[in-house]
Amino acid sequence: MPPPGPADPVRALAAALLNLCGLGLGYALLRRWLPALGCVAATVALLLVALPADPDGVPAWALAGYGVLLLLAALDGARRGLRAGPAALPLRPVLAAALGLALLVVPAGGAYAYDGLRDDAVEDMLLDRLAAADALVERAAREDFGRAEPTYRSALARYRALTEDHPGSRAAHRVHDSLGAYYRAVAAPYRGKDRCAAVAPLEHLRTVPDTIDRSVLGALAAWPDTRLATALLDCGTGKLGTAESDGKGGELGELLRTFPQSAQADRVEPALRAAVTRRTDGLDSGAPCTVTGELRRIGDTAKALPDPVPGRLRAPVAAAVRDGTYACGMDEFGDGKFGAARRTLAGFATAYRDDARRDRARQVATAAEIAEVRPAAGDRLPRAHAPGGARMELVVSNDGPDPVEILYTGPVTGRLTVGGCGSCSTYPSEAAGRSKACKASGRTYPKRTLRLPAGTYHFLHRPGGSGPAARSRAAGGSIQPGYTYTQCSYVVRAPGLGADL
After folding, report:
1. Cα(50)–Cα(58) distance, rounded to whole angstroms?
2. Three-state secondary structure readout of 410-444
3. Model pTM?
4. pLDDT in tens, 227-255
């Protein structure tokens, strides 16, 4: 080998710069082919690791290793070039250095290109995330909202992550369209005209602005409001009379409190009035008790609504309930439900003392109470007005220690109370009572006198006072013209048994 030439710093710089391009050209300049192939192999290995581009980029160990390798190749090329002999390629050192400097664009351009590929990979990943969130919405749309709500919220969290963590990405720009599909999926019951089922989903949609920024939602932020107001109105009015009050007015109360200025809120009071009128007109439909129960529930709903609705509806609802209560009691009597009729009509007479029907209600309540023990007394409604003609006396005496109330129905209906006999006692048997009651000489028995028109009557003797309670006793008989009648009330108490009047 010829002796090495003098040291050439320019050639050393050229070899170092050419090796920094990652293709081993500095070694090629010096005709060192094996190290040149090593550099090319290292670059190829890096490309195999880096491509296809991954959203996470090239592993740190690969970049660090490759960077150290390029630095060592550059230093080694400079060392070899500084002492290289005539074996170097016939290329002017200055030109080689300039070429090496120019070729530094290769690794820089590669890094830039790789960043672009990595950005594309990140965008693809984010689009995949968006598609996965959309798939969750599609799956949830096939289920009932109550079961699907956690799935909807999971999708919503993914949309939020895309808009907050990657606001400039293509996926983030498409979130608004996905949210439109989200809103349509959640509000499916509303489109299906199932207003009550639509309330909870639409209430959920009104909370979405708490999760997703309004700038992303745009017009979607207010999209549920009108629909929710309509659903609350339709659902609430549909439940009038059938649902028990929750103390807040149900869906109608929520409507008036949430959307007080809406057109739907203005329709609440007319809807309540229409419901009351419709049921009042239906009191003669054959089910007045059912209608009255509905009227009461409507009244309970109206009371729970925000002012001024309760004050405006109090009078019409109260009047309707009054009419319904009376009609219900009369209907119960006609159906043979004497106990229910007694309670209903007695309650009517107590609650509505100024009502013109109060006396009639008390009449029928009295007949119903007798009919509970003696069903024949309920074969027909008692006469509303007493007949004319002669009246016969019926004297009722009490041979019992406690007061007794006498209820009667027939051509006339009523009740009276005969005071207790302080010196009287009970009898051991009915036979003893029949033979001795009201017959003791020298004893004055409390008594009352009734003047009754002729006809068939049903009587009920009901014990009163503070003594031991006795069972009532009912009987029937006829009052005929030209006679005077007597009745004696006494108490039988057998050993080990209760008392009978």
Report:
1. 5
2. CCCCEEEEECCCCCCCCECCHHHHHHHCCCCCCCC
3. 0.70
4. 999 999 999 999 998 888 788 889 999 99
